[in-house]
Specification:
With about 325 residues, this protein is of the alpha+beta class. The protein has 10 helices and 10 strands. About 40% of the residues lie in helices and about 20% in strands. Strands 9-8-7-6-10 form a 5-stranded antiparallel β-sheet, with helices on both faces. It has a 3-stranded antiparallel β-sheet with strand order 1-2-5. Strands 3-4 form a two-stranded antiparallel sheet. Helix 1 packs antiparallel against helix 2 and helix 5 runs antiparallel to helix 6. The longest helix has 30 residues.
Length: about 325
């Protein structure tokens, strides 16, 4: 029995060492170099073997944990920044000034997209009267995975103006999205405020392949609309002062879903579709959150906007075209 307990203890120690070195090697590969990561991985293999072959396994375990602890201290000091060489479409982050009911958004993106890599860059300031905020739409953009969609929230005002907020990774020039990198501090968190002509058109018309985008108008009372808008504005101001890391699981566009649902009902329970956001249309329908007359019918087909957007003609209003019945 004693031998069995010893073997289990050594096995557990070896497992923890293997996980520690694996995580350390992954972090080093993303933030330092591949060679450093390979050295860390090789060192981990050596110590795992020594746990079972050394005459003094306790010493092997103790010494083996020292590099992992050192890597942990290094990792805790890897801090997000706002001064990197950002991709042009993420070069600015929205900031908002308030005066009474007037909200002035600075660094609103209003690009003209020719293709995903060709565009006319334009950042503008826009002032909105929050007393005239009268609609909230959620756009879900799919790129091939049915269970996952990017979530964008569009606020509409009485004068027909729309402003979209989108929580995204803040890529550096030449970077591409990586789910793994999003777990290991590869990307800062970005909040983009943009016109629909920019941020939705990019997805429906400019990207190759084009994305399937759906627009769902939601039932939101005046206070909830305003509170949700303010939550985005505050987030933008916070990120401008104190950058944060994007996280594939805990800090991504799905956090927008959580804020949205909490704005309807603070006591509403967690639902897996808050994370697996591709299923949000059914969640909206089940909880009577869609601002359409009943019966809803095929609400996904009703919400689809990509085909309509791709038929837009010069001089037409993008926001009007995608909402045409």
């Amino acid at each position: 029995m004693k031998t069995l307990f010893k073997f289990l203890a050594l096995g557990l120690s070896a497992l923890v060492l293997a996980v520690g070195y694996g995580l350390s090697a992954t972090a080093l590969s993303l933030h330092v170099s591949t060679i450093t990561a390979l050295i860390a991985g090789g060192l981990g293999i050596v110590f795992v073997i020594l746990v079972f072959t050394s005459k003094r396994p306790v010493i092997a375990i103790t010494v083996g944990f020292l590099p992992v602890i050192a890597a942990l201290f290094w990792w805790s000091g890897v801090a997000p920044r706002n001064d990197r060489n950002w991709a042009p479409e993420l070069a600015q982050t929205v900031q908002t000034d308030f005066e009474g009911s007037q909200a002035t958004l600075h660094n609103v993106r209003d690009f003209t997209w020719i293709s995903e890599t060709e565009f006319e860059e334009r950042w503008v300031s826009r002032t909105f009267d929050l007393d005239t905020l009268d609609s909230v739409d959620v756009a879900l953009s799919y790129w091939g995975i049915d269970k996952i969609a990017h979530v964008l929230v569009s606020f509409g005002f009485a004068d027909g103006e729309q402003i979209v907020f989108s929580v995204e990774i803040r890529k550096e020039l030449g970077e591409a999205f990586s789910e793994l990198g999003g777990l290991f501090k590869q990307f800062e968190l970005s909040l983009i405020a943009a016109t629909e002509q920019d941020i939705l058109y990019l997805r429906t018309n400019a990207r190759d392949p084009r994305e399937d985008v759906y627009l769902y108008p939601l039932k939101v009372d005046a206070k909830a609309r305003r509170d949700l808008f303010m939550s985005y504005a505050r987030l933008g101001n916070q990120l401008a002062k104190e950058p944060r890391w994007y996280n594939t699981i805990t800090a991504n566009c799905s956090t927008a879903v959580y804020r949205l649902v909490r704005s309807f009902s603070p006591g509403r329970k967690f639902d897996p579709r808050f994370v697996l956001s591709g299923g949000l249309p059914e969640y909206f329908a089940e909880h009577d959150m869609l601002a359409w007359d009943a019966p809803l019918g095929d609400f996904r087909a009703r919400a689809a906007i990509s085909t309509k957007a791709q038929q837009i003609q010069p001089g037409q209003s993008y926001s009007e075209i995608i909402r045409a019945e």
